[in-house]
Write a structure and sequence with these properties.
Distance between the termini: 25 Å
CATH class: Alpha Beta
Helix content: 25-40%
Largest sheet: 5 strands, parallel
Number of strands: 5
Radius of gyration: 13 Å
Shape: globular
CATH superfamily: DsrEFH-like
Strand content: 15-25%
Strand order of the largest sheet: 4-3-2-1-5
């Protein structure tokens, strides 16, 4: 039975490798029949910018991002988050903080990083 999973990432990928690892885990969840949505809060939205030079484990991130595009995995970012044009290649929607909170509550499973 398919489950709806929310993967919430809020840590800064320029400070720790955890956000890139969280994306790797999210991609693994997409390989099954689960409906997976990735939520990027605050500085975690830097995972979807074109210039990944400052991101820890950027080489690993660059290996996984094409799969997210190909699988059309939905990303949610907070309203007001500045994204560059490159992020248009991904399925990104913006939601208010309350909408994100409600979305996470409605998911059957959540992973918080």
């Amino acid at each position: 039975m398919s489950k709806h999973i929310a993967v919430v990432i809020s840590e800064d990928p320029r400070i720790t490798a955890r956000p890139v690892e969280a994306l790797r885990i999210a991609l693994g969840l997409c390989a099954g029949d689960h409906e997976t949505t990735v939520i990027l809060l605050g500085p975690a939205s830097a995972l979807l910018v074109e210039d990944t030079e400052e991101i820890i484990d950027a080489d690993i991130l660059e290996k996984y991002l094409p799969s997210f595009k190909q699988l059309d995995v939905p990303f949610i970012v907070e309203a007001g988050t500045s994204m560059d044009l490159w992020s248009d290649d991904f399925s990104v929607t913006t939601r208010t903080t309350d909408e994100i909170r409600q979305f996470v509550r409605s998911a059957e499973r959540s992973l918080i990083f």
